[in-house]
Amino acid sequence: MSEGEHISKHTNTMNQKDIVLQIKDLHKSFGDNRVLNGFNMTLHKGENLVIMGKSGSGKSVMIKCLVGLMEADKGSISVMGKDITTLNQETLDILRADIGFLFQGSALYDSMTVRENLEFPLRRHSEKFDGNVDTNSLVIKALENVGLAEAIDLMPSELSGGMKRRVALARTLILQPKIILYDEPTSGLDPITAKEIIILMQEIQKKYGTSSLIITHDVDCARVISDRMILLIDGINYAEGAYAQLSISKDPKIKAFFKH
Ligand SMILES: Nc1ncnc2c1ncn2[C@@H]1O[C@H](COP(=O)(O)OP(=O)(O)OP(=O)(O)O)[C@@H](O)[C@H]1O
Question: Helices 135-145 and 114-124 meet at what angle, rounded to 10?
């Protein structure tokens, strides 16, 4: 048995009842290119789970399967105990409102003010608030949560990279998601701004008890934020464990991630 498998078995004994997101035996190929080859993942309530994998290892493919943008060849994905591959569109939309997604590069609407960017998801998911929504106070509260209340009437072009990332996070938070998927939350930011974003992610997790799935290449981000990590290698969850445990591994495939 490889060391990776050993670590995997160890973490499988964690509490089963707090599972908010689970991927089982996920397979996805493109022709002969077997990208995911039996990937498993479990996210627990309130947990910060970091997934690391080399470029091209299949992290985006996994996320796309998870949010329904891509169909897996085999495997199951369940959110809050519901298998998303078997749900109808309406139920899926309701479930989606519980999942926040922070895209790489923020993805704000450039032609809208910060306020309008934040109002957008509220309109799309008005069912979540039973039509009873005080848009203005939700927008202000979400911006206060990321320390940017004063930016409410600015355009995205007037914001720095770090501010854009914060606004994008506020836009994710406004729907009060139970799970947040972060795709490379610190990419393209200088080290100080990256650290600010990591601190903000930690504060949000503490305040709302959100469960977070964080895809990152940034070893420092992983060290600070992760309760647990999964290394996606050869299409599987090759190794799982705490940063402290994985970073001293002697397995060359695992060691390669922690070289500075
Ligand atoms: N739609 C597609 N059609 C064919 N091949 C694809 C498609 N999407 C992804 N792939 C292939 O799947 C593999 C994994 O790609 P993916 O984008 O998931 O990597 P990644 O781990 O997210 O990389 P990065 O860190 O560079 O973003 C790559 O070999 C890629 O070429």
Answer: 120
